[in-house]
Amino acid sequence: MVNTGLPAGWEVRHSNSKNLPYYFNSMTRESRWEPPEDTDLETLKAYMAKYHSGAAAYPDGSNQDDGKIRCSHLLVKHRDSRRPSSWREADITRSKEEAREILRGHQERILEGEIRLGDLATSESDCSSARKKGDLGFFGRGEMQKEFEEPAFALQPGEISDIVDSPSGLHLIERVQ
Fold this sequence. Notes:
Protein name: Peptidyl-prolyl cis-trans isomerase
CATH class of the largest domain: Alpha Beta
Helix content: 10-25%
InterPro entries: PPIase_dom_sf (IPR046357), PPIase_Pin1 (IPR051370), PPIase_PpiC (IPR000297), WW_dom (IPR001202), WW_dom_sf (IPR036020)
Shape: globular
CATH architecture of the largest domain: Roll
Number of strands: 7
CATH topology of the largest domain: Chitinase A, domain 3
Enzyme class: isomerase
Catalytic activity: [protein]-peptidylproline (omega=180) = [protein]-peptidylproline (omega=0)
Distance between the termini: 27 Å
Radius of gyration: 17 Å
Structural class: alpha+beta
Strand order of the largest sheet: 5-4-7-6
Keywords: Isomerase, Rotamase
């Protein structure tokens, strides 16, 4: 049996409606999007990377086609964004400079090691990828807006960009792979 890092009775399942993994306790019938208390997060992270990121599709476990990278991001929209609304706010009225200040605060917390980008994206990102800790999955050149793609491809795995301005809003990008 594969060690997931989850406490006894818990397992990882996949939601077909949201196309996301979730946690289910077969004894209590409880389900949740966040890992339960007492989870070994490092073991869970390794398990999720191996079994729930599409790695099974690639025999070498690389989980990527040639030239593709994987990134997470934290998006803060402003009133001049392409679609100034999100799951967090129906009508975003903040200025671009206000959005920049919000993102600078998030950037400072991340760089100081107070919180990880993905954990912050879950509650603070204006992108629907927030429910996946900002994970955008694998993408190649020409699949993202140029303003986003260029800085993303310039990052090395583990690096986080400075503030990136795109038609969608302002981003912090973390290259995962």
